[in-house]
Amino acid sequence: MEDLIQVVDWSRLQFALTAIVHWLFVPLTIGISLIIAVMETIYYRTKSEKWLKTVKFWMVLFAINFAIGVATGIILEFEFGTNWSNYSWFVGDIFGAPLAIEGLLAFFMEATFFAVMFFGWKKVSPAFHLASTWLVAIGVSLSALWILIANAWMQYPVGMEFDPAQMRNVMSDFMAVATSPVAINKFFHAVTSGWVLASVFVIGVSCIIAAKGKNLQMAKDSVKVAGWIGLIGMIFTMWTGDGSAVEVARVQPMKLAAMEGLYRGEVGQELIGIGIVDEKERDVKYKIAIHKGLSILANHDADSFVPGIDDLIDGIALTPQGDTINTTSYAQRIEIGKAAQQALRDYEAARKAGDQAALSDAISRIKANYQYFGYGYFNSPEEAVPPVALTFYAFHIMVMAGGYLLLFLIVALFIVYKKPVWFDTRLARWIGILSIPVVWICSEAGWIVAEVGRQPWTIQDILPVQAAVSSVTAQSVQITFWLFAVVFAALIAAEISIMVNEVKKGSNKDIIA
Amino acid sequence: MDTLGIKARKVVDFYVDGFKNMTIGKKLWAIIAIKVAILFLVFKLFFFPDILKENYDNDDDRARAVATELTSR
């Protein structure tokens, strides 16, 4: 048992490390490919040489990020097969189908047009080149779409039926999986947040290349394009963030409660802006809160009830009409889950014995109780509660950083359009440069909220982490964790070093001369 | 057939010329090659077997193994 806990912890840690490192590269690829496509469109329309050189400069940084980041996501698939083999089998084709589509369609689209984008300047017509650049940007986002559909299914499993004979979930409705509201919202939230990230990166790097006074005009032009894309991205990110809150309140209310450190909810629930979580006292101390804010955020109704962690454990929930009702408590869910698992044991025994009557009876009991299958692995309701402090702090860091970035983008646009002389000041440039890590922290914090907040589930309500992991030793996972840590550190060091070198080269010469 | 051959040749030349004229791209491709080699020839081969594929011959055995795992924890 102790070894199982260690296997679970190390496997989660390894997956978290890989996902965090993978997400360092992905949003920059998503956003900067769009920025480059817009810049090349301006070049195509104006035929101005300065825009051609500007596009080529940002393309080099895009290529560095693409090259270092490519294939880091494959490691997650390695981990599924080795550390999470029960999960991999159990999800069946539901997880596999979107990933296969991603591999076949989107990745090849990216790879083909990526070559035209980099090798084709003098080989293809300007219009074809521009189309290729746009197709790279679209392909990158399509890749993200399929990955996020797979991720959303884990958070909100729909469109499937469990088949005990295959011991896996079988897709029964592809459209339900592909158009799940959680998936659609997650896709737009992740992609538009990538626009914001890349925009802040472009503005920050523009501050560096303009530092020696040689590329002022190019830097300002880049800030204008990035500023608008970033601002549009931020508006969409906030809008879809609001949509995420509504979806989380509906399908993962425990995650929402953890995000706010909310143990007992109220009608007209406040939204905490800042505070310190005290998990022992089950409270948030020293908080500054917005009156009725969480009720508005979660339900778009200032006087609605938002259930806390203890309310949910007790089975108090909110109907779509906004009424509070007593529903299945977590203690009851555990009983139902254990009944589903007993039915599965009976199914296996009946299968071996060839007893058709017992088989049918077991199948009907599995179906009746499957909704809470995963709760059968718990001994107490508290085991179904995610890490509250980590979820709370990640959420609040994301929100605060997001608020800062909105202000940053507005100010950046104001400066380049209305007060361009301010762009030449050291203060403005340092703010631009120091905002680069802020946007990455914001982006990673968002994923920590999404993934830590749904613990202990790999598939919501159906498969917790302790059932999903393989029968491997904790030592084997520890070894690969450290191996990955070394490789990832080397990759990040390579990216930063090559990028800094290119940016330095850019700042030392007149790029558009 | 000739036209197809000419087109294929053009595609090959496109990539060959592209690679030849790269500056920083050569360094990046070297990084990609080393990284992919480490991932597939070291990590995948020695540290990340597909446990179910490696230990069981067919899907039914794999399903029963997972059933045993999920009903015994």
Count of distinct structural domains of chain B: 1
Proportion of residues in helical segments of chain B:
over 70%
Q: By helix and strand content of chain A, what is the structural category?
A: mainly alpha
Gross morphology of chain B is elongated
The rough form of chain A would be described as globular
Helix content of chain A: over 70%
Mean pLDDT of chain A: 92
**What is the strand arrangement across the widest sheet of chain A?**
1-2
Indicate the proportion of strand residues of chain A. 5-15%
Helix and strand pattern of chain B: HHHH
Rg of chain B (CA only): 23 Å
Strand composition percent of chain B:
under 5%
Catalogue the unreliable spans of chain B.
none
What does this structure look like?
The complex is a heterodimer of chains A (about 525) and B (about 70). The mean pLDDT of chain A is about 90. Chain A folds into 3 domains: about 375 residues; about 70 residues, no CATH class; about 50 residues. In chain A, helix 6 packs across helix 8. With about 525 residues, chain A is mainly α. Chain A has 18 helices and 8 strands. Chain B is built from 4 helices and no strands. The model of chain B has no long low-confidence stretch (mean pLDDT about 85). At the A-B interface, helix 2, helix 3, helix 4, helix 5 and helix 13 of A face helix 1, helix 2, helix 3 and helix 4 of B.
